Amino acid sequence: MAAAYTPSVTSEAGMSRHSQRATMPRRICQRVGCGEPVHKPTAKYCSIKCCSIDPARHERLRNQARRASARPIPMLRQLRFDFQPTGFDPEAQLNELCLAREDVPAGMSRLTG
Which of 38, 56, 79, 88 is deepest in the core (most CB within 10 A)? Predict the structure, then answer.
């Protein structure tokens, strides 16, 4: 359903009330049977109450919920867990990394016993 618009409010001189900004015509509440103007330029309803009791909105939300629950969302990227072979020994791997390291640097070896 298309939103209905009313002409913008103008003064006696024909100038718009907010001449610095681009004026948008005031919208009318989207709920059928309500003719109140909407308070904000991006709003569809005049109040929270009108939004909550609008039957067209309820039907739209009901259909959206039905569509969303009907099909599962596929995983775009599946997690991969690459495990080491069963013979993996973390101690042996640490020993290989530490072969070239010294516990005491060569320059300080005279200080240790």
Answer: 38
- Whether residue 38 contacts residue 45, with contact meaning beta carbons closer than 8 Å, is answered with yes
Residue with tokens 């320059």: 107
Q: Backbone phi, then psi, for 5, in 5-degree steps?
A: -120, 150
DSSP codes joined into one string, 33-70: T--PBPSSTT-SSSSHHHHHH-HHHHHHHHHHHHHHHH
Domain ranges across the chain: 24-69
Tell me how far apart the terminal alpha carbons of the chain are, to the nearest angstrom: 92
Q: 34-45, pLDDT tens digit by residue? A: 989 999 888 999
Which pLDDT belongs to residue 13? 52
